[in-house]
Amino acid sequence: MSKALCESLTLFHILRSSLLGELPVANAPIQLTLSHHETTEGLTYQQLTIALMSRDRIISPQDLANLRLPAGLDPRKGVVISGRAPVWLYVYLAHECHPTLWVACFDPRLGAVVTLTHSHAFQVGQVISLEELNLEMPSIQPAKLGSALLVVGPPDSGKSVFSHLLFSTLIQDYPDIYLQRAHWDGEGNWILELPEGASNDEREAFKLANKGTLTEHFFPYQKEAILNLRQQKALVIVDAGGMVQPEKQSILEACTHYVIISSNPEEVEPWHDFCGKQGNLQPIAVIHSTLENTLEILPHEPLLEIRCGPWIQEQVEEMPPALLEKTKLLLNSIN
After folding, report:
1. Which residues pair with residue 285 across a beta bridge?
2. Per the domain annotation, does 141 fall within a domain?
3. Quick check: 138 pLDDT over 50?
4. Which residues form the domain of 288?
5. Which of 87, 152, 244, 266 is 20 to 30 A away from residue 123, measured at CA?
6. Cα gap 296→307, rounded to integer Å
7. Verdict on whether the full-model pTM lies above 0.85
8. pLDDT band at 185 (very low <50, low <70, confident <90, very high)
9. Quick one: DSSP state of residue 151?
């Protein structure tokens, strides 16, 4: 069978599916929607948007069995796949969209990264910038930026666990949230979402295997990533590691607020100096991290100070209500 005939049959099956109007399964955990756009350069393309419909935004590989592409996917145009989803879902959708002119995956920190192409006009690895995509961001007012909350404090105080819990709690009701790990220690969300049976030694081994080092480009890249995210998200939570470093000035320039979580009271003031006085960021709260199971609001108004813990994976269940309410105020504070 010739290559041309194979391509024709592939296009036929896509068009047939479109004409049949395959509808999404009711109450499906994954919702796919198709929209059509034009870049600032006049290029027409389509966007395949992923929405995870369960309140906790958790899906399983078995959900792929009933997943279908929306009707109307045009193989003569490129497609940008976007939305928060695990890697395996992106791989599946990229494969399903293979017959289209080109396929790109949307990275909200960069733009649309071309990963597959049948067109001489596009190259694998090419980035269609956020400005070129010309997308409307309905959650953020034009020319406005969402807030960015910097999570700081000394090592071993629970920053990563706190950041992940805050993100996981807020996203249940506010989908326009993003957690940016602006550190090279290898402790991303995937480490914290390992199966419950994973031991601390196994988690540490995964972290060490993926740990990087600081380079001169690292924090300037993070700054641009955070600013790009703020164009699209109501709130960006930023975990920037446990050391006060002059190199982090770029991060300060990209953020708007900060929260300190510290297991050592003597380490709190240096972070106030760095984030508040030097970075001109607004403080949200100070969390005095403990290994005890406790929750105590300290009388230090107007700044919220809480003594609570332990901030250890699988030992913390919910975000302190007072802290959660303070953070929610940022969602209505578009800068």
Report:
1. 259, 304
2. no
3. no
4. 147-332
5. 87
6. 5
7. no
8. low
9. E
